[in-house]
Amino acid sequence: MKRVLVIGAFNILHPGHIRLLRFAKECGDHLTIAVFSDKTTSQPIHVPESLRLECVESNSYVDEAFITDESPTELVERVQPDILVKGREHENLENPEEEVLKRYGGELLFESGEVSYSSIELLRKEFSYSETNQITLPHGYMERHNIEISTLTELLDKLSTLKVVVVGDLIMDEYIICDPLGMSQEDPTIVVSPIDKELFVGGAGIVAAHAAGLGAKKSELITVTGQDLLSEQANSMLKTMQVSPNFTIDQHRPTTLKQRFRTKEKTLLRVSHLHQSDISEKFQKKILEKVALLLEDAHLLVFSDFNYGVLPDELVKKISKLAEEKGIYTVADSQSSSQIGDISRYKGINLLTPTEREARIALQDYSSGLVILAEKLKQKTKVENILLKLGEEGVLIHANNPKENSFITDRISALNSTPKDVAGAGDSMLITAAMILSVGGTIWEASLLGSLAASLQVSKLGNQPLNISELNRHLI
Predict the structure, then answer these.
(1) 98 and 237, same structural domain?
(2) Which structural domain, as residue segments, surrounds residue 111?
(3) How far apart are CA 292 and CA 315, in angstroms?
(4) Inside any domain, residue 165
(5) Angle at 266 between CA 260 and CA 270, to 5 degrees
(6) Contact 447/397 with Cβ under 8 angstroms?
(7) Longest dimension (CA), the chain
């Protein structure tokens, strides 16, 4: 492991420091920052040492930081880094540390860091800032179905009684923020330089995290992961989100990773690292055993299927039978990649939430109108309710009408007119609508709250767990 050391006062962590730290991090594997104490530094002190240290530690490039009373020479002698990095302004001055470095084979580098025309702090705000001012409730729809705000808030309060079990494909989403450098002179290729990244839990993982964020008494995730760092990171992140991860480890199967390269708030490229073949019978048996155990006191079962092999047909049938025998409310979402995937294999359950494209692939029907399409899917699957997701056009609700043995259809337009990142909208709609139905809400109430959850999700960058207080705030 190549260790890099930077020493300084870091009175105010400005963009020049960020560039220097980025350069230093690129020079090795482990970046250590030594922050001069209040009594050691010769610079005027504007910020106490504890705050200066905290500021440095919060930087994503820094692996370790500490306060020091030692001189730079003494510090280098003790720590013996492989590389010491100093700002370019020191290059023509006396640098006594160099003699110590030469003695044991260390190296002294001078660099102020390359200029990044995108501020990292501004880029990080893209992850934390959400735009929800444009979210509006569909009052006409609410009047048609006699929906009262007070009823919606009461339903949200009841979610704390639920135990939710989510089964499906875990995905880790990595957003890589880049600086645009321009067009390659050798070929017509856009050239970027990665400057920061953020990791999110996705797939079935974020569905379980949404359930926890909506107040579920318990949220269980059952999935298969690789024996790798991503699996460990997912496990830790899910526990922080109050999800109970039940991982079956397959050392021959990598944890699915999807990377998005972004610049100027736009996604340039997506790269998927995944294994799509079905899990073996041995692993299917392990999954079934875990599901059977966790369904004993569960209220809701969610199939979160991305068709990456965690839910083969036979396993889906066996799990569905278990849930039916126990009278557990069951919902499913099966996302299709290219022409792979068949939402219609989830039969006899309470709720399906396909996109229009996924429904057309399942039915091999590319010409019927939306209502006919939804009805055909209902006939094939014998499902109670269908939410046909239409992207920017909102959602079509195809609902069971038991009094007349028929279906009623209605539509909710997209509630957020300025989406920031559409990834994860369907997952948030699925789990919110399912939980509302599980506590006795109507399909109309569930569809409205599901649409509101989706509108909140697309107001943020990356998959971030829903928060029940957010939904309540937009019902006022």
Answers:
(1) no
(2) 3-115
(3) 12
(4) yes
(5) 25
(6) yes
(7) 90
